[in-house]
TrEMBL record, chain A:
One of its GO terms (molecular function) is DNA binding. GO terms for biological process: DNA-templated transcription. It comes from Natronosalvus hydrolyticus. DNA-dependent RNA polymerase (RNAP) catalyzes the transcription of DNA into RNA using the four ribonucleoside triphosphates as substrates. InterPro entries: Arch_Rpo5/euc_Rpb5, RNA_pol_subH/Rpb5_C, RPB5-like_sf. Belongs to the archaeal Rpo5/eukaryotic RPB5 RNA polymerase subunit family. This is DNA-directed RNA polymerase subunit Rpo5.
UniProtKB/TrEMBL annotation, chain B:
It holds the Pfam family RNA_pol_Rpb1_1. Keywords: Cytoplasm, DNA-binding, DNA-directed RNA polymerase, Magnesium, Metal-binding, Nucleotidyltransferase, Transcription, Transferase, Zinc. GO terms for molecular function: DNA binding; DNA-directed RNA polymerase activity; magnesium ion binding; zinc ion binding. GO terms for cellular component: cytoplasm; DNA-directed RNA polymerase complex. SMART domains: RPOLA_N. The keyword rRNA-binding does not apply. GO terms for biological process: DNA-templated transcription. The lineage of its organism: Archaea, Methanobacteriati, Methanobacteriota, Stenosarchaea group, Halobacteria. SUPFAM superfamilies: beta and beta-prime subunits of DNA dependent RNA-polymerase. DNA-dependent RNA polymerase catalyzes the transcription of DNA into RNA using the four ribonucleoside triphosphates as substrates. DNA-dependent RNA polymerase (RNAP) catalyzes the transcription of DNA into RNA using the four ribonucleoside triphosphates as substrates. Forms the clamp head domain. It comes from Natronosalvus hydrolyticus. This is DNA-directed RNA polymerase subunit Rpo1N.
Length: 75, 986
């Protein structure tokens, strides 16, 4: 099986620590359900990701060098 | 006017309505289908009962006591003789019928399953997903059950015949069971099935022989277990489908018994929406105000479609009741029931598939409830999202190169109709009086005035002088003369700001603000450089103008929407406004070979610009007269300190040093509409205003230049010498020979296929290649005979219009015509036209046009050319409708996204879509459009500072960061202390 998370086009997905998550939610003044979603079955997710976790994605961007996106794991 | 405060909405609940609520809401029961009596007065308990609201002026509503106009109307109701299905809920009803028990009405799910779906439902609600999906999944799960897990009853399939009929499908023993068994026992020799004797059958099925014989004779109906055994033994089907129609009353009973807890699993709120309410027993009658009748010229009344429909319903309802009371046969009752169902269905939706629409006497389908709401002209899209507005005008557009790109020419007859509100003060009273004195018909006049007490007076030819205080009567009647505190609705005058728009409004540059220039005649006039953002031309295009009605709107339009603020497009961060067409040819001619002009000529070129003094001459010619070069004339338009260097349209280096065009030709890539380098640089470095001035002057200079040189095109410009034509014929004959060789090789089977292609495809490709090379060669030969100063060549090279391909098609050879990217292969069997042999693979037989447009096409060539052209037309037609719909969907999907102050993009429920707008949080028009074109921020900053500060000290002080708090009150320091004692003055 191909591990897509190793593919060069798949950006880095990491599970966000709970205390860092608090800061992120505070910064944007939101609940975690207001974040964009990602399915648990998504092959790009790290193995330890569980439903309810928040994933930090750092991807290369055309307009900035690196763009950070947070996503909530669902279902 | 009522002074009621509008109600504030916290939330909207959607649900089903209890029939009892309908009755409570109703002001009267409606029992007669008649509307008016012989005197023309509404009949009591009829469809036009005055208690349902009044529409005739002068009458008082018996329900609310208000008059027509303020009476909102009141609902009535019809008691239906028999329950009827509501068409809007047929899908949900089907689901519920399939998911609940036919006997005990409970949901066909075990307690565990119910708990699971309850969890999924709350999960879906929490994550904002569609609870409908959970309902569907639950029903799917429930349908799998053959027996009810609660009462054990066998469940049958429910079939739904659209729109409103439901059947229960049962498998029962066919009446022909004995014949079928006998037939199967005969066996079939062809398929190798042996005969079965009754003895054998008895043995196989474990049924006594006597029973078998009784079954075979038809005197005993086999029980279910016996039937299955026989079916298994003989491999036959002894059942037939028995459909049992479910009447609305049956369904109502069924739904009534569904427990509250069971429907909550499906996401239905039992408190607000009991499923049995989907079957109507009471029909609400909409107020008269929703279905007003109109009186025709001849005094006859014409009723609204809804009223017609309600009349039908009441008639059938009455007939149904009469027949039932008279004890009519079941068949007739059922027919009437179906008819009642039909009328109630079409009352709500008259465009149900599978049902003939109810029609008016004239044959026009009735417009019932759903038709009022649906679609483009419906209540939502037609009346709520879109409305007609006052202070707007629409007319044909035409060009006017003397206008600034910020301006729009407004016909005087439009200007006298559109008005701007002017508050009269002591300082502008003289002007105001002059407007009013001019009256409503002379141009800078006024149409209305408004007194300080709020009364509006129309300015007429008769009273205008008096209102302005310029006649004798006026002195007698002081109060009727305008003064401070009045408002004057004066005509549009030069310099007013208006909004201008051309549909389709696909991007924000489709709606821009312009300054008015009042002009004679009937068209809107605009500068040709604003055609690209509007995508306008002058072949009959019309545009809309909106006069703004308050100071806020005018200020916003001026600051944000004026054309000069839209020079840079947010789509790609470069200018969308710039020189077009002849402007480009003009600058090209002016700068290409750097021609010389004498003083008069140079001044003429610059006459429509701000420059009224020529710079130092570029040189002295042989006759001792000073001359100015084209590039030096062009440089007069550039900012003095501008520096720029890039590779230009025709491949030469364009160099601008200190505002002088040192080298290079000015054409499309330099000043054109989509990303003209110089326009872009000026806009970004010197601002929108400087850019506007530049574009305006550029276009006028270009027009002067092209008029100086003269620019025209004729058929001789695309004609080549006979010798060249002969050479072209030769190359084409050559290509024909090579195509013939290819075909021969193919027929001999010697053609080798290209990798991944069949032989046929290979042949096609090679022929296409050969022919396209022939066309190119013909084009090259033709090109040799065009000089650089050929007008068509000038246009193609400068990028003004057309391409070299267009030119070679006119002079050399039109080339291969294609449909769907292939040579033309359609028409008759094995050939394109009956002029050719079947299976002729030659160039001519498949749409190769060897003639040029100047020479003219042969009949067959012409036909092939029309085929190719048709495809292009169809393509554009399909593409515009497809992309229009795509656009609509995209707009609807994205319209509520908003960039917040923290830089995130969120939707209305505050869900984040982007964590930083565009990932970098910048506007495309404020940044460089690519890495090679950095915006010189330092340079701009130092230039601004240079202009601002005279001495280096001042500049240093500013930069050192000592900010003076300018917007604070003088008393700021004392105000900060809250507890300080207030020292009173008095």
């Amino acid at each position: 099986m191909v591990d897509v998370s190793q593919h060069e086009l798949v950006p880095e997905h990491t599970v966000l620590e709970e205390d860092i998550l608090e800061d992120v939610l505070d910064e944007y003044d939101i609940d975690r359900t207001d974040l964009p979603k990602i399915k648990r079955t998504d092959k790009a997710l790290p193995d330890e990701a569980e439903v309810g976790d928040v994933i930090k994605i750092v991807r290369n961007s055309r307009t900035t060098d690196q763009a950070v996106v947070y996503r909530l794991v669902v279902e | 006017m009522s002074l009621q405060t509008p109600k504030e909405l916290d939330e909207i609940q959607f649900g089903l309505m209890d029939p009892e609520t309908y009755r409570d809401l109703s002001v009267t029961k409606v029992i007669t289908a008649d509307t008016y009596d012989d005197d023309g007065f509404p009949i009591d308990m009829g469809l036009m009962d005055t208690r349902l609201g009044v529409i005739d002026p002068g009458l008082e509503c018996p329900t609310c006591g208000q008059h027509s106009g303020s009476c909102p109307g009141h609902f009535g109701h019809i008691e239906l003789a028999a329950p009827v299905i509501h068409v809007g809920f047929t899908k949900l009803m089907r689901r519920l019928l399939r998911g609940t028990c036919r006997e005990c009405s409970r949901l066909l799910l075990t307690e565990d399953e119910k708990a699971e779906f309850r969890d999924r439902l709350s999960e879906a609600r929490r994550l904002g997903r569609d609870p409908q999906d959970v309902l569907k999944a639950a029903i799917r799960q429930a349908r799998k059950k053959d027996r009810c897990p609660h009462c054990g009853e066998i469940q049958y399939d429910i079939e739904h015949e659209k729109p409103t009929t439901y059947y229960e499908v049962q498998q029962v023993l066919t009446s022909e069971y004995s014949q079928r068994i006998a037939g199967a026992m005969q066996g079939n020799e062809e398929e190798g099935i042996d005969r079965t004797t009754p003895d054998e059958l008895a043995e196989k099925t474990d049924i006594e022989l006597t029973r078998i014989n009784e079954i075979l004779s038809g005197s005993f109906r086999p029980r279910e277990s016996q039937r299955k055994a026989i079916e298994k033994a003989l491999d036959i089907d002894l059942t037939e489908e028995d459909t049992n129609k479910l009447m609305p009353s049956d369904i109502r009973d069924w739904f009534e018994a569904i427990p509250d807890g069971d429907i909550e699993v499906l996401g239905i709120d039992s408190e607000r929406s009991r499923p049995e309410w989907m079957i109507l027993t009471v029909l609400p009658v909409p107020p008269v105000t929703t279905r007003p009748s109109i009186t025709l010229d001849n005094g006859q009344r014409s009723e609204d479609d809804l009223t017609h429909k309600l009349v039908d319903i009441i008639r059938i309802n009455q007939r149904f009741m009469e027949n039932r009371e008279a004890g009519a046969p079941q068949l007739i009752i059922e027919d009437l029931w179906e008819l009642l169902q039909y009328h109630v269905t079409t009352f709500m939706d008259n465009e149900i598939s599978g049902t003939p629409p109810a029609r008016h006497r004239s044959g026009r389908p009735l417009k019932t409830l759903s038709q009022r709401l649906k679609g483009k002209e419906g209540r939502f899209r037609g009346s709520l999202s879109g409305k007609r507005v006052n202070f707007s005008a629409r007319t044909v557009i035409s060009p006017d190169p003397t206008l600034s790109l910020n301006e729009v020419g407004v016909p005087d007859r439009v200007a006298t109709e559109m008005t701007q509100t002017m508050l009269v003060t002591e300082r502008n009273i003289e002007q105001a009086k002059q407007y009013v004195a001019n009256g409503p018909n002379a141009h800078p006049g006024a149409n209305y005035v408004r007194r300080p007490d709020g009364r509006r007076l129309k300015v007429t030819e008769k009273n205008c002088k008096a209102l302005a205080g310029m006649s004798e009567e006026a002195e007698l009647d002081e109060a009727q003369t305008i003064g401070p505190g009045w408002e004057v609705n004066r005509h549009l005058i030069d310099g007013d700001i208006v909004i201008f728009n051309r549909q389709p409004s696909l991007h924000r540059m489709s709606i821009m603000a312009h300054e008015v220039v009042v002009m004679p005649y009937k068209t809107f006039r605009l500068n040709t450089v604003v055609c690209p953002p509007y995508n306008a031309d002058f072949d009959g295009d019309e545009m809309n103008m909106h006069a703004l009605q308050n100071e806020e709107a005018r200020a916003e339009a001026r600051v944000l929407m004026r054309v000069q603020e839209q020079i840079l497009s947010p789509r790609f961060g470069q200018n969308i406004i710039g020189a077009i067409q002849d402007h480009i040819s003009g600058t090209y001619l002016l700068t290409k070979d750097n021609p010389r002009f004498n003083e008069t000529q140079a001044l003429d070129l610059l006459r429509a610009t701000r420059i009224d003094e020529l710079p130092e001459p570029s040189g002295i010619d042989d006759e001792d007269k000073p001359f100015w070069t084209g590039r030096d004339v062009f440089s007069e338009l550039l900012p003095d300190d501008m520096n720029l260097e890039f590779t230009g349209t025709i491949g030469d280096d364009v160099i601008i040093e200190d505002g002088q065009l040192v080298e290079g030709t000015i054409a499309e890539d330099e000043v054109g509409e989509f990303g003209g380098e110089i326009v872009d640089a000026i806009t970004k470095q010197y601002g929108n205003t400087r850019s506007r001035v530049f574009i305006n002057e550029l276009s006028t200079l270009a027009m002067r230049a092209i008029m100086h040189f003269g620019f025209s095109i004729g058929i001789d410009d695309e004609t080549i010498p006979a010798e060249a034509e002969a050479r072209i014929d030769e190359t084409i004959d050559d290509a024909y020979d090579r195509v013939a060789e290819l075909i021969e090789a193919y027929e001999r089977g010697e053609l080798e296929s290209l990798p991944g292609r069949t032989i046929d495809e290979t042949l096609e490709m090679k022929i296409m290649q050969t022919l396209s090379r022939a066309r190119d060669n013909a084009g090259n030969i033709a090109e040799e005979h065009f000089t650089e100063d050929n007008p068509a060549v000038v246009m193609a090279n400068s990028g003004a219009r057309g391409s070299m391909l267009n030119l070679t098609q006119m002079a050399g050879c039109v080339g291969q015509q294609a449909v769907r990217g292939e040579r033309i292969n359609r028409g008759y069997e094995d050939r394109t036209l009956s002029h050719y042999e079947p299976n002729d693979l030659s160039a001519g037989a498949h749409g190769f046009v060897e003639s040029s447009y100047t020479v003219g096409l042969g009949p067959r060539e012409f036909f092939f050319h029309a085929m190719g052209g048709r495809e292009g037309l169809v393509d554009t037609a399909v593409r515009t409708s497809k992309s229009g719909y795509l656009q609509r969907r995209l707009i609807n999907a994205l319209s509520e996204l908003e960039t917040q102050y923290d830089g995130t993009v969120r939707d209305t429920s505050d869900t984040i879509v982007q964590f930083e707008f565009g990932e970098d949080g910048t506007s495309p028009v404020q940044v460089a459009y690519d890495q090679d074109h950095d915006v010189d921020v330092e340079g701009i900053a130092s230039k601004v500072l240079d202009e601002e500060f005279d001495s280096p000290e001042e500049r240093e002080e500013f930069l050192s960061g000592k900010t003076v708090e300018t917007n604070l009150s003088e008393h700021a320091a004392s105000r900060r202390v809250a507890s300080e004692e207030v020292t009173s003055d008095d």
